[in-house]
What we know:
CATH architecture: 2-Layer Sandwich
Strand content: 25-35%
Distance between the termini: 28 Å
Number of helices: 5
Structural class: alpha+beta
Number of strands: 8
Order of helices and strands: EEEEHEHHHEEHE
CATH class: Alpha Beta
Largest sheet: 8 strands, antiparallel
Oligomer: single chain
Strand order of the largest sheet: 4-1-3-2-8-5-7-6
Amino acid sequence: xxxxxxxxxxxxxxxxxxxxxxxxxxxxxxxxxxxxxxxxxxxxxxxxxxxxxxxxxxxxxxxxxxxxxxxxxxxxxxxxxxxxxxxxxxxxxxxxxxxxxxxxxxxxxxxxxxxxxxxxxxxxxxxxxxxxxxxxxxxxxxxxxxxxxxxxxxxxxxxxxxxxxxxxxxxxxxxxxxxxx
Length: 181
């Protein structure tokens, strides 16, 4: 499956890890670098830790929201985007017990997740990887890339998202900050 990716924390890689902060839940081991590549889905010891995720459709996004996002979002890998954040997130059992429409209501109607994100595009590029469906310890791996001059904006984005009702359902979150080597 060509949409599955490994995020490998270890001693070498194209991204240097600046910090690993546990926001809530259990921490992960410290590593100095991160590598990202398409996965072979086998559990190999390729570093200190490996997180797997796959690209999928936007599950809580409606057509008009997707069109707005697509129209202004930047691509990953831009030369000026030398800073990044990998934020693995796991939501509580209570979140997953909700019906899809109930999760959508919290995600967008109450927390305004997409609306918040749109405020920071195209300066901050992002991609979501799903992990829950492949038995990983996190539900989502969120990847962000941005230029140093947009670091304050990125912090504002995170603050707004973490203050939303949706985030009350997060029971594990790690904030990994990186710089392009």
